[in-house]
Design a protein that fits this description.
eight-stranded antiparallel sheet; alpha+beta; 38 strands; Immunoglobulin-like; seven-stranded mixed sheet
Length: about 575
């Protein structure tokens, strides 16, 4: 081999080594120092050309490892990330550049040829290029990577690639974490995220890929990249304190109508683990709590919000709204003093947002034995295309009632309005305990927390129906206090025992009941019972057997019998004369 041929071979091998070394730096996705070379003179440019390029991007949820080489990696990778949107745009050429610098030194090396527009996008100064020719500026790979990796350039790069006019190709990673860009013209490609999944806690920083690339001592048109994004779910939980100290099996909660409950909703935001990018700050965060058919009367003045152990300031750091059946807590977006600013200040550590409030079981809604209220957080991070919801946290409350049907012994009679009334009492060792106050509801009655100024009287409707809602399991006494003229009052209160049973297969909690010791039907949480009043012929109310009026009748009968005996004795005495 002559000297000239040896020199060419050495230059070619040098170019290959420099190219491989340069692209290893590019694939490292890290910050490197700039060369700040003064522009030299181009001697020759050999551009890599072709149309069968391929970039295989696989995003994993793990800490970054060693720099990629462009070759496939088969070990040490786990937890692929689905739903990462990635844009890819060819921004320049990949060349072997021979140039002469200002000191007349001739070098051959890999370089990236960039236009003025791309230099402006990346913040590169053409005067610092290795050399320039015909509007193309040739930079060392490490200089371009340094510019791409600058955090200050990230938003600009992402916006440029998202601009449809720039015609970047966009893909979203599949369940395998893979997005494959096919049929690419050879050149230097800039890749950046277009969107992130809702559980991404760290960002995907822009990165460069050269197509083709010198991998394992050979040129390859398929290049593999393995960027990292850390993910973790935001979770939410909800508890309720019925504040009466009653404990029930299986954690079920049974309530009375009018009872005040204390709710606690806790949202946990995981720490942003180490990844390629910085933690993704929140651009919005709200917590909503919805109760079934407005079955809770929420006291908005009792709402308290804490970030960790710090109590946040209403209106300054969060707002409260209560519309219909939905309570909404929204962190404010004031740059330095808002709730979002406080949340974003500590993304590297796990944080909790705790909302507490008081609510009373409503007494003016349609009855349901199962009262469900559900909380969720709705949020959006930087990089997310749309807001996302957490899984829901649900609390079920259970309450029961009485469905009484009143009948008259004379089928020809009808029940007059406001004539037949009842009172409900708690049990006190088998006797009447405290009277239970009631409130008038939607065509029925609800147990009330306190007696109203003008006590509500429970009347049987003209259809014979009386419904009372909002009772916990327990023993109750239902006492008739008035009936229609010509009918007898019940001589003793009716004893009703409601017992909650285990949850059924569909998750519903059922109950059993007895009425005066006999099993009673329970339908949709209502204990059914039927009571008949007996008509008397005296034209006024007479109590049934065993009532107080029985003694009066007995006395009258005995008096009449005594008079008869006396008259009989007098008659016989007169006959003997």
């Amino acid at each position: 081999m002559n000297g000239e041929s040896e020199e060419k071979v050495m230059k070619h091998k040098l170019g290959i080594r420099l190219f491989a070394a340069g692209m290893a730096l590019v694939m490292a996705l890290g910050l490197l120092g700039t060369s700040a070379l003064a522009a030299g003179t181009v001697n020759s440019v050999k551009e890599k050309t072709g149309t069968n390029g391929q970039i295989v991007v696989t995003v994993y949820d793990q800490n970054p490892g060693n720099a990629g080489t462009g070759a496939p990696i088969t070990e040490g990778l786990s937890n692929p990330v689905e739903g990462v949107g990635i844009n890819a745009l060819r921004i320049g050429s990949v060349v072997e550049l021979t140039s002469t610098d200002t000191n007349n030194k001739v070098t051959t090396q890999v370089a990236f040829g960039l236009s003025d527009n791309i230099c402006t996008l990346l913040g590169l100064v053409p005067a610092n290029a290795i050399a320039s020719q015909n509007g193309t500026h040739y930079f060392a790979p490490e200089d371009v990577q340094t510019a791409v990796a600058l955090e200050a350039n990230q938003a600009t790069i992402e916006a440029h690639l998202n601009d449809e006019d720039n015609r970047a190709e966009s893909l979203v990673t599949r369940a395998t974490g893979v997005a494959t860009f096919d049929n690419l013209n050879y050149g230097l490609y800039l890749l950046a995220k277009s969107e992130l999944p809702a559980d991404a806690t760290t960002d995907l920083v822009p990165f460069l890929v050269s197509v083709p690339m010198y991998v394992n001592n050979a040129w390859t048109n398929t290049v593999y990249a393995y960027p990292k994004v850390r993910t973790d779910d935001i979770t939410i939980s909800k508890t309720v304190d019925d504040q009466d100290g009653t404990a029930y099996a299986d954690g079920d909660i049974y309530v009375n109508a009018g009872q005040t409950l204390k709710y606690t909703v806790t949202t946990t935001i995981p720490a942003a683990a180490t990844g390629n990018g910085s933690a993704n700050g929140f651009t919005s965060f709200a917590i909503t709590d919805t109760n079934t058919s407005s079955t809770l009367d929420i006291d908005t003045n009792s709402v308290q919000v804490k970030l960790g152990e710090t109590v946040l300031t209403k209106d300054t750091q969060y707002t409260v709204s209560y519309t219909g059946s939905v309570l909404t807590i929204t962190l404010t977006n004031t740059q330095t003093t808002g709730g979002l600013a406080a949340l974003n200040a500590n993304l590297s550590t796990e944080q909790t947002i705790t909302v507490t409030y008081n609510a009373a079981v409503a007494t003016d809604v349609a009855f349901s034995s199962k009262l469900t209220n559900t909380a969720k957080a709705t949020y959006q991070r930087e990089g997310m295309g749309n807001s996302a919801d957490t899984q829901e946290a649900k609390v079920d409350l259970y309450t029961y009632g009485i469905d009484l049907t009143k009948t008259l012994s004379d089928a020809n009679d009808t029940i007059s309005p406001n004539t037949i009334s009842f009172e409900l009492y708690k049990d006190n060792q088998g006797q009447l305990g405290a009277k239970i106050p009631v409130a008038s509801g939607t065509g029925s009655y609800w147990m009330a927390a306190t007696e109203e100024t003008s006590p509500v009287v429970m009347y049987v409707g003209t259809d014979g129906a009386l419904k009372l809602y909002g009772l916990e399991p327990g023993t109750y006494h239902l006492k008739e206090t008035a009936t229609m003229d010509g009918y007898t009052l019940l001589d003793a209160p009716i004893t009703i025992v409601i017992t909650a049973t285990n949850a059924s297969q569909d998750g519903e909690v059922t109950a059993t009941a007895t009425v005066n010791g006999d099993n009673a039907q329970v339908t949709n949480g209502l204990v059914s019972l039927s009571v008949e009043n007996t008509k008397n012929d005296s034209g006024f109310n007479l109590p049934q057997t065993g009532g107080a009026g029985t003694l009066l009748l007995t006395a009258v009968g005995l008096g009449l019998l005594s008079i008869g005996v006396i008259l009989l004795a007098m008659y016989r005495k007169k006959g003997n004369r």
